[in-house]
Amino acid sequence: MKDSIIHLVRSNIKNLKPYQSARRIGGNGNIWLNANECPIPSLFRTNIESFNRYPECQPKNLILSYSEYVGLLSNQILVTRGADEGIELLIKAFCNPEKDAIICCPPTYDMYALNAKISNVEIKEIPTFKNTWKIDLENIQRNLNKVKLIYICNPNNPTGNIILRKDIINLLKITLGCALVVIDEAYIEFSSENSMVSCLKNYPHLIILRTLSKAFSLAGIRCGFTLANKEIIDILNKVISPYPIATIVADIAIQSLSKNAIKIMKDRVLKLNLNRNWLINELKQISLVKKIYNSHANYVLVKFHMFEKIFQKLWEKGIILRNQHHKMHLKECLRISIGSHVECSRFIEEIKILSKL
Ligand code: PMP
């Protein structure tokens, strides 16, 4: 077309494939086990009636509530539009396009690499070891040239494993003074003893990402946190947009961090962890299952015989899973988010029917 604007688009954006989020992929489901959301809603009301004023850029009371929850100072916390915004801001603040690089360790969450691509920042993929999913420290150390940020997801999405604490400490030691280590703890409440928050006091280059989307059951409000030492938070505050947190979001997020709401969140986590263990035990008895990966989060990765047929048949029945077959080391794997007990039972029922065909 003569008036096309396509020639104006940056060349790295022209052929970019957008993130294939669960919502984008769609489906006609009534059992959604594809986005690692909480199946149990948390119920809050808001009394805010007027919205004519802009919100604070960093709502003080929300930061205070999170600082109490996580045991850090207010100046060590940045509140963002989901943990996803934290991933993006770090690249914006620290990586020069066409000059610097990030490291990520596939199979892992796609947004680290996608944000680097959008910013024209080189991506060095250093895969984890197949099946143990341990990080390859030697290979990372050999590839630190130009690297500003190293993204590690813990527990890792989609594999569900924990990265050994001693491996993260070793990574922090080899990167001190040369690169920042970002630990994405989006799912940490399901395995809270593995958090690296206590290490912030010893490592000036450690950054931790958190979210209210998972254990707090608030994916719809889009609220996350970046935790780091003041120096890093001050830098991120330079590049964040003027009003990233809507008034209503801050109000609900503050309520979700009250003592009582945190207790409810912890009960919900216990329940979901029980559902996960139940689901894994059931899967172990099903002949279509080739391998179940150990999980410390609210999802489980499973390798199936006839994975495509299972995915498709369940999709047709409104049980929506996440296909991981295209990812490095994950041939024939599907990721199943942990739903309510009823949802997990329905899923098992259908898999059992398929295994008898
Ligand atoms: N990190 C990981 C590992 C995730 O799986 C997700 C959500 N899919 C995010 C970050 C983003 O979370 P949020 O909803 O807070 O943007």
From TrEMBL:
Catalytic activity: L-histidinol phosphate + 2-oxoglutarate = 3-(imidazol-4-yl)-2-oxopropyl phosphate + L-glutamate
Transmembrane segments: none
Matches recorded under Pfam families: Aminotran_1_2
Pathway: Amino-acid biosynthesis; L-histidine biosynthesis; L-histidine from 5-phospho-alpha-D-ribose 1-diphosphate: step 7/9
UniProt xrefs under InterPro entries: Aminotrans_II_pyridoxalP_BS (IPR001917), Aminotransferase_I/II_large (IPR004839), HisP_aminotrans (IPR005861), PyrdxlP-dep_Trfase (IPR015424), PyrdxlP-dep_Trfase_major (IPR015421), PyrdxlP-dep_Trfase_small (IPR015422)
Superkingdom of source: Bacteria
CDD domains reported for this sequence: AAT_like
Keywords tagged on the record: Amino-acid biosynthesis, Aminotransferase, Histidine biosynthesis, Pyridoxal phosphate, Transferase
EC class name: transferase
Aminotransferase class I/classII large domain ranges (all copies): 45-351
N6-(pyridoxal phosphate)lysine sites (modified residues): 214
EC number(s) from the headed UniProt entry: 2.6.1.9
CC cofactor: pyridoxal 5'-phosphate
GO biological process: L-histidine biosynthetic process
PROSITE patterns in UniProt: AA_TRANSFER_CLASS_2
Any one GO molecular function term: pyridoxal phosphate binding
Presence of the UniProt keyword Membrane in the record: no
Oligomer and partners: Homodimer.
Family, per entry: Belongs to the class-II pyridoxal-phosphate-dependent aminotransferase family. Histidinol-phosphate aminotransferase subfamily.
PANTHER family membership: HISTIDINOL-PHOSPHATE AMINOTRANSFERASE, HISTIDINOL-PHOSPHATE AMINOTRANSFERASE-RELATED
Name listed for the protein in its UniProt record: Histidinol-phosphate aminotransferase
